[in-house]
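Hey, can you fold this one?
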Amino acid sequence: MKFLKRAAAMLTACALTAGLLSGCGTERIDPATIEYIQFEQPEEGQDIAILDTTMGEITVLLYTDEVPELVQNFKDLAGQGFYDGQVIFHVQPSLGIVAAGSSTPDGNGGDSNTGKPIRAEYSNNLWPFTGSVSMICYEAGALWNKDYYCDSRFFFLGETEVTQDVVDEMTQYNFPAMMKNAFVDYGGVPQFGRYHSVFGKIIDGMEVVEAILGLELTYESVDPTDPEVSGTQEQLNNNRPVEDVVINSVTLSTFHAEDYPELDNTPTQEELDDLIFRSAQEQAEIDAALTGEPVSEVSASSEASE
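Sure. Predicted structure:
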């Protein structure tokens, strides 16, 4: 699985110095247009998928409006029973990765609803925060015409704290205060942004993902962030639970608030308003420092309502 090598190398291969908001080979994004929908309450009737595993159920909110082709691919495969009986083929605790979606335990059994790789689809409103669910993307194509593609393989992103080095780098390169603070407050892997494509988030069953991340693995010593104990690339690529974790079935449904009184990875409105207000204040200071103009006052009520 080349993606695993690429994932471990993301700190340098597509570093923040290259600009997360310009992605790896993608168009530049206007930070002012980003809507942080992953922190908002789901809409009634929004698509969800319930993955029944041997460790428990995981409910995923699907962002059909944001990345329709990727969600349709996932839904079509789920409807065909493609994911039923599959094992978790890779776990990488240092990055919070729990990977699934391969018809073979070695992770090389990717497929799609067309039988061919799908061109990666990205939304400016979806980012790899803790609890996100992303299609595994990889670079392919001729040397002069490379692009990013994906298939059936995806990963859950567990609780992953953003290191101070990454926070400092986001600050140094003038990332939007809202995005930086969201990663600091709620965790995630900023380096995956605009590479692996987010198509959903866990709203129930986060404890299942954390339990999988804590299982005994085939190569306990593998840690891509520590070259002294990193093991071989083969070990890194095949690090999965000693005892198989199996996806029994995937049920497609729709979200109804009464079924989910408490949502994982979703702040309360008060917490979200506080994040928005703090970030607006910080952004005003950043903008003032860049332009040399006085810091404009930020209204808590007006910013929280936007």
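Residues 269-291 form the longest helix (23 residues). Let me know if you want another pass with a different chain boundary.
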